[in-house]
Amino acid sequence: MISLTEVQPSGTDLVSQVEEIFSPTGILSRAKNFEFRPQQQEMAVAVARALAKQEHLAVEAGTGVGKSLAYLIPSILFAVQQKKKAIVSTHTINLQEQLTEKDLPMLTGVFAALAEPVKFSYAMLKGRANYLCTRRLQKAMQQSGNLFTSSEAEELQRIYEWSKETKDGSLSDFEIEPDGKVWAQVCSERGLCSPKTCGHQSDFARDHDACFFQRVRNRILSADVVILNHTLFFTLLGGVDEEMEGGILFKNDFVIFDEAHTMESVASRHIGLSVSSGQVRFSLNRLWNPRTEKGLLATLRQGPAVKMVAEILSESDKFLRTLKAPARRSRRPRGRNLAAVKAVLPGGASGRNCVSAAPNS
Ligand SMILES: Nc1ncnc2c1ncn2[C@@H]1O[C@H](COP(=O)(O)OP(=O)(O)OP(=O)(O)O)[C@@H](O)[C@H]1O
Ligand code: SF4
Ligand SMILES: [Mg+2]
Question: FRET pair for 236, CA 20 to 30 Å: which of 125, 140, 230, 257?
Fold first, then answer.
């Protein structure tokens, strides 16, 4: 559940502070509807102790114990005291919303009322592709005739109108999500995002406010608590520089996984490499789509390259078809995998239990 890399002080202060906060007369007891829950206090103390001692901890506790507060409170105190960043990874968007819209705002008030008030900041981290890239939007508007069919061009216009009103420039701020193909041409993309072209000194930056993605990025870098989902966590983990010292995703961070029973499957999906015929086709069609006769190559007027893309499309289909049959044959029957799981869990635990040796939300 928690991973730390630097030596910490013994942490008795943190442990007793957390025990006191969850006690029947602690500061939390002044919050509306609070009830003293011994299991919650026990879990919070265990989390505080693990943080202070740099130990990993896995907790399984019944539903409704109040596990979120039991890890949030020690994590926030520890992050602020030690100038670290707490990463909280969840499986569902519902839990992320509960944390950012209910639990963390409530804790902001609770911590402000402490004898020595504690101030902290938090932010939700979404994948880069969730954010509009204003520079790509500007380019796409200029090249719309070559890139898009007429209905896609209308969709682009809708995104442009939305871009003038949106609060955070992210997909979740749309009432009706835009067409995926058009969005893919205007969302922030790693390889295309360069401080040289959009940084403070650039012509683009003089005419535009800081872009949506850079704004959220700055908030994340300075936040004490960052909320994200398992998918993004493992995607980012796959791209992290292994040499990075003192942190996992960010310098000096530590990680809490809630809804940890899904971690194993999410991790295997996102740390492993995969490629599908659909992905290959999608990427090639961004260059040139023989059916609609649109694509980036049309804007560059590259005749020979267009021909090559058409050939690669057909060859890649053939190649992936030849891989399919041996891949199917090498798949092991499911039953054998399940038996192996049971053999290492003498109690004959179900598959779900065996991966939820952590907060079971
Ligand atoms: N000590 C408490 N007194 C009253 N309400 C609490 C207390 N602790 C947490 N809550 C509230 O109880 C609700 C459930 O808390 P939480 O989501 O953390 O539970 P959980 O143990 O994670 O449950 P689940 O397993 O269903 O995810 C939340 O709305 C939270 O604000
Ligand atoms: S900094 Fe990146 S995301 Fe922002 S406008 Fe520039 S290219 Fe787009
Ligand atoms: Mg929960």
Answer: 140
Output the CA angle 37-253-216, nearest 5 degrees.
100
Pocket test for ligand 2, best of 193, 197, 202 (most atoms within 8 A of CB): 193
C-alpha of residue 346 to centroid of ligand 1, in Å: 32
Q: Which fold has domain 12-121+223-270?
A: Rossmann fold (3.40.50)
Please give the backbone phi and psi of residue 187, each rounded to the nearest 5 degrees, phi first.
Answer: -85, 165
Select from 58, 94, 93 the least CA-distant residue to 260. 58
Report CA 69 to chain centroid distance, whole Å: 21
Helix, strand, coil shares of the chain as percentages rounded to 5? 60, 5, 35
Q: Which residues are within 8 A (CB) of 142 and not within 5 positions of it... i.e. 6 or more apart?
A: none
- What residues flank ligand 1, with Cβ below 6 Å? 33-35, 37, 40, 63-69, 103, 361
User: At 138, which amino acid appears?
Assistant: Q
Compute the distance between CA of residue 28 and CA of residue 22 in angstroms, rounded to an integer: 6
**Which pTM value belongs to this model?**
0.73
- Whose CA is closest to atom 8 on ligand 2? 133
Domain ranges of the chain: 12-121+223-270, 130-210, 275-333
CB 53 within 8 A of CB 8: yes
Distance 130 CA to ligand 2 centre (A): 13
Between CA 313 and CA 265 the distance in angstroms is 31
Bridge partner list, 181:
none
Q: pLDDT (tens digit, 9 = 90+) per residue, 44-101?
A: 999 999 999 989 999 999 888 999 999 999 999 999 999 999 999 999 999 999 999 9
CA distances 185 to 87, 92, 178, 282, 291, Å, are: 30, 27, 11, 12, 18
Q: How far apart are CA 349 and CA 59, in angstroms?
A: 17
